[in-house]
Amino acid sequence: MAGAGGRAPLGLRRWLSSPAPAPRVCVVGSGPAGFYTAQHILKHHGGALVDIYEKLPIPFGLVRFGVAPDHPEVKNVINTFTQTAHSERCAYYGNVTVGRDVTVPELQQAYHAVVLSYGAEDNRVLGIPGENLPGVYSARAFVGWYNGLPENQDLKPDLSCETALILGHGNVALDIARILLSPLQLLRKTDITDSSLAALACSKVKRVWLVGRRGPLQVAFTIKELREMINLPGTRAVLDPADFTGLESAVKDAPRPRKRLTELMIKTALEKPEEMQAAAAGAAAPREWGLKFQRSPQEVLPSADRRRARGIRMALTRLEGSGDSAKAIPTGDVEELECGLVVSSIGYRSLPLDPAVPFDSQRGIIPNSSGRVEGVPGLYCSGWVKRGPTGVIITTMNDSFDTAQSVLEDLQGGVLDISPSREGFGLVESILHSRGVRPVSFSDWEKIDATEVARGKAAGKPREKIVDPAEMLQIIGH
């Protein structure tokens, strides 16, 4: 297609001599949402450069800090994320708090597109008297404590009571119940932190109630987690057959997962006590757990000296409507339950990151359309801060691919103007340097990782998590 004399036409010559600047994309947050967004962009755009920023020195977010220690298979996605981080077009910068060390507008100056994937770093509050008493914890803090989240390393939950009560009927609530009741020899083989293992070894908790405002047809946990709880060695399930009356016919036409889940609860409720005893044989005082339905917390009751929680008062509820949209309405009757440990597992909550980013505090999300932040071209969001704190890793993966697709479409359609080349980390680095912030690289993380694995090996565990950021930085000579 050469012109006269074999020379390329002028327009084509100019294009050949000046390659288009590479689109620079920045992702804030290195949990599943951040890594899946980066992975999709790198895979489907051969020239894009992606930088991932994380406030902790260490990556992987809730895969490291949310997944239960006895569910190691769920953590296998870390291998995929590590491959992404090793791409020559991807860089990781840990130990950088966006909104404090560098602002979102500063990132927008440095990158063609900025994706916010920082998750939900707070919990929903109960809004009832007594919820701030010692002995009451959020699920987020409790899970963070046994999973080594630095901000929860000093939680020191008091496990000196026999009865614990968890508010919520989701998988996180079951995780916590399972960790509280698991035989120590099972936990010793996991990456649970050393200090929480020591605390659980001295725990007096032998009974855990999981309480929900609605009924058996509205529980949010899945059958795999329920089955694991039912089969926990040395532990028996206490379900009241009366709670399940008439439900078999009610779930006949329900979707298969809901039907199977309900049938398993009914079967467990109807098991005869001697079968239960046989199942828990070998345990002198079998531990137990149970589900309580249609109860809404009204007040955490203080001990006589008002120094700690001693129980909880709950309003009994009736359901209006059916299925997932059923509402719990108080009946006027109340019930009190003695317990020395209360864990509130009613959901996580995202927080606003930077005044420059629109935020819907009612719904706890960044207002967006397919991940495009409303009213701010070039700004995107993925994961829990985009859709709310629900779903498992696969949900987050699909959601992040959806946001990444929006970025790719905007690059292709010229919505994102990449003609002015952007400096990316070059600009951010000078900003961080001026503020005395030293980022941590992915190879730095791999040194921390190797130290954890070596310490774990010595203790017969997959790893011994380091929970103090100062110690992490010391290992890499920061």
Question: So what's the overall shape?
Answer: globular
- Mean pLDDT metric: 92
> Which class do the helix and strand fractions yield?
alpha/beta
Strand element count = 18
Please report the number of helical segments.
18
Description:
It is built from 18 helices and 18 strands. The protein is globular, with a radius of gyration of 26 Å. The protein has 478 residues and is of the alpha/beta class. The termini are far apart.
Lay out the secondary structure.
Blueprint: H1 10-17, E1 24-28, H2 32-44, E2 49-53, H3 61-65, H4 77-86, E3 90-93, H5 104-110, E4 113-116, E5 122-123, E6 136-138, H6 139-147, E7 163-167, H7 171-181, H8 184-187, H9 194-201, E8 207-211, H10 223-230, E9 235-238, H11 247-250, H12 256-270, H13 273-279, E10 287-292, E11 295-302, E12 309-320, E13 327-338, E14 341-344, E15 348-349, E16 368-369, E17 372-373, E18 379-381, H14 384-387, H15 393-412, H16 425-434, H17 442-458, H18 469-475
Parallel strand pairs: 1-2, 1-4, 2-3, 4-18, 6-14, 7-8, 7-14, 8-10, 9-10
Antiparallel strand pairs: 5-15, 11-12, 12-13, 16-17
In short:
With 478 residues, the protein is of the alpha/beta class. 35% of the residues lie in helices and 18% in strands.
